[in-house]
Amino acid sequence: MKFAGLRRRLSAISGARVRTESWGGIVHLRRPAALVYVNRGLLRALGHPEDPLWASPTPGTAHRAPVELHWTLSRRCDQKCAHCYTNSLPQAPAFDPADAERVADALSAAGVFQVALGGGEPLAEPGILIVARALRARGILPSTTTSGAPVTPDLARRLGDFAQINVSIDAVGPAYAAARGHDRFAMADAAVRRLQAAGVRVGINAVLTRHTFDALPALLDYARERRVSEVELLRLKPTGRGRATYLEDRLEPAQAAALLPTVLEAARRRRLRVKLDCSLAPFVYQHAPDPRVLKFFRIHGCEAGDSLGSLDAEGRLSGCSFLEPVAGDAVSVLTRTWSTDPELARLRGYRDAAPDPCRTCPALALCNGGCRAVSVHLTGDPHRPDPECPRVRTHAEGSARDDR
Fold first, then answer.
1. CA distances for 318 relative to 300, 343, 354, 389, angstroms
2. Across the strands, what pairs with 84?
3. CA 348, 243, 94 angle in degrees (round to 5)?
4. Containing H/E element for 114?
5. Which of 25, 210, 282, 285 is least enclosed, having the fewest CB within 10 Å?
6. Alpha-carbon span 196 to 211, nearest angstrom
7. DSSP states of 120-186 as a string?
8. What is the pLDDT of residue 1?
9. How many helices, marked H, and strands, marked E, lie in the chain?
10. Residues in CB range of 7: below 8 A, 6 or more apart
11. 402 Cβ neighbours under 8 A, 6+ residues apart
């Protein structure tokens, strides 16, 4: 959108939510629904008052707070899915609705725009409706992901505060049971249909493993048939129950290399919106794709500790749901020290001190070293290059030959 057109669009928005940043700010548009990054000059032209963050002539690059936060309400769930990253359990403590307003106030004060409510099984928590209402009242968009088990027609009609609800479906038909360890595809499919009937925007979350990758075309066909809003493909993470079998279940190198061509073909042939988890970035960048492809799939590489944050069921804050929590009070870090916290700064600043082969990679600025959770699991250090990145793997093989 050209500057003049954008200015007219922003000027026409009454009461648009704006969060200032050192470079300018982020404007939350309602129609079209979008977060627009704008510079200082445009905000001034729109009549926004001067902000102390603009005092420095050299803008910083770090966000002053997360744009999106993942909030695990509880680890309570009876599904026992094979790769549950929170290692959820039926007897885990339930979410206390008394925390809803307090946490929502903190997220609002921090300027968070979107909150993904997770679990466990978040829709099994009665308090989730209170949380969604509290977030909406503060201009924050709530979303959630469900196995589908709690979604009755009555519950579906009461979920109007959610911007989107994704149903976890790694594969369709018999492949669902192989992926999740139980056969509940019919349950998940019923949830999709009930949510859509209630007017809820519905997507699908699918975890990619070596066992589900070949079933991906069938899943995308199903998504097209059900007319879901999008399919988000997630890389298997070595956390929770997924840690024990990670090496046996992760994508094979040939599958990782085939990921981008597969989803490109699917998006074109099925006219389906497919999103890729930021941890899949190394498998995308190996193809040196056109920047327009990256924009289409919203691939930005690791955003932990910068535009992305996570709050776990114990109230601890981290840069990502798959990483250890940072020290200090979560509310204080969110509202006062997010951009200066040393642990978070090291996460988002990987590119500034990246070792080889990331240091010389043309995709470093976008990829930011791959998945930190995979790095810490396979190397013991979250600040090492993602060992499953094709470039990193080739470099390691070359180093091993040189040593011999």
1. 19, 9, 21, 24
2. none
3. 85
4. strand 114-118
5. 210
6. 29
7. S-GGG-TTHHHHHHHHHHTTPEEEEEE-STT--HHHHHT-TT-SEEEEE-SSSTHHHHHHHSS--HH
8. 47
9. 17, 12
10. 42, 45, 46
11. none
Nearest CA to 260 out of 236, 276, 278 is that of 276
Domain ranges of the chain: 3-54, 68-344, 350-403
Q: In the chain, which stretches have pLDDT less than 70?
A: 1-15, 295-298, 400-404
Contact between 338 and 344 under an 8 Å Cβ cutoff? The reply is: yes
What dotted CATH number matches 68-344? 3.20.20.70
226: which 2 tokens? 């059900």
Contact 297, 284 (CB under 8 A): yes
Residue 18 and residue 48 in contact, taking contact as beta carbons nearer than 8 Å: yes
Residue 61 pLDDT: 87
Q: Residue 296's pLDDT is what?
A: 65
Q: Three-state DSSP class for 118?
A: strand
pLDDT value of position 397: 83
Do strands 34-39 and 24-29 pair parallel, antiparallel, or not at all (unpaired)?
Answer: antiparallel
Q: Which pLDDT score is estimated for 15?
A: 63
Q: Residue 148 carries which side chain, given as an amino acid letter? A: G
- The whole-angstrom separation of Cα 330 and Cα 314 is 10
Pairing between strand 164-168 and 141-146? parallel
Residues facing 168 on adjacent strands: 205
Amino acid identity of residue 295, one-letter, is K
pLDDT for 267 equals 81
Separation in Å, CA 139 to CA 16, 25, 44, 99: 10, 16, 23, 18
Is the Cα dihedral 234, 235, 239, 241 positive or negative?
A: positive
Beta-carbon count within 10 A of 359 CB: 12
